[in-house]
Amino acid sequence: MEYNYFGSTGLKMSRIAFGLQTLGWSVAEKDAFELLDYYTEEGGNYLDLADSYNEGRAEEIAGIWLKDNPKRDDVILGTKIFFPTGDGVNDSGLSRKHILQSVEKSLKRLNTDYIDLLQIHCFDRMTPLDEVSLSMDILVRDGKIRNYGLSNYTPSQITKTICDAEQKNRIKPSSVQLEYSLLVRSPEWELLPVCEENNLGILAWSPLSGGWLSGKYRRDRAIPADSRAGVGDRWDDNEEQRGGEFTYGIIDRLIELSEKYDRPASQISLAWLLKKTPCIFPLIGARKMDQLKDNLKAVELSLSDEDEAVLNKVSSTGTPYPYSFINRYTRYE
């Protein structure tokens, strides 16, 4: 495993992070323990959850594994808050009430005294920034969390959050979790630069676009009935992530490079992400052991500049204004 510093936290994080959304859904408890054992034995040290995953069951399973586990101090444990966790009118969002209650419940489910990285799962238009930053300060002061991050925020929302915290001498966010892959490259326009300028760690969720970039879906072949696309799990994807000529054009190039490097297409996709910048940590999920083993080996693969350029070209959707204008007349020296 390879490691790099995660933003400004001072923590060294494994370059491949492990997302545990499948726990309690498509991965049973016994299988989850085997996956967690293998991931940590191979040097992986970041586990990503959310209080809303499978009605809290994902956190419960992870908590059973963590209980009395000497690896707890070696693991960087992250979870998220925002989405509904019950039927009550205040069981969602970023009110101080919901945040503080949710963290207490997560700590109990996870069998731990602290959360290393608490992430806000989505920007909340209805809750002032001051309320959110004060809640984070309270949680850090009380030792319930070590750091906090943002997820599914716009660049301006990230900047406003940082400025608000600086003005009030409060804890600033340490990271951003965002969707980024060969099929979703829009973060390159502004999100990634904002993160790099502010030394924020970047967790890239859905780096394989729900399996579309893993090699399991091919042009002119039926989509496997038991796959995520086959069962209609990808409910909120962008249009380009549901097949079509653009998607299959990328897949064609991945298959060619897969044959060239004698590596699975999933490793090619992840290696492309890892090559972008050291501050990006792809967040992989796994239902089966062979998926986890294959994906962890992506850190061993180094794409040539020429092959990276091929993938950049085939996955480009163009750059909108004003980014295109700025790029035309501004060059990094």
UniProtKB/TrEMBL annotation:
This is Aldo/keto reductase. InterPro entries: AKR, AKR_Detox_Biosynth, NAD(P)_OxRdtase_dom_sf, NADP_OxRdtase_dom. GO terms for cellular component: cytosol. Residues 15-313 form the NADP-dependent oxidoreductase domain. It comes from the Bacteria. GO terms for molecular function: oxidoreductase activity. PANTHER family: NAD(P)-LINKED OXIDOREDUCTASE SUPERFAMILY PROTEIN, NADH-SPECIFIC METHYLGLYOXAL REDUCTASE-RELATED.
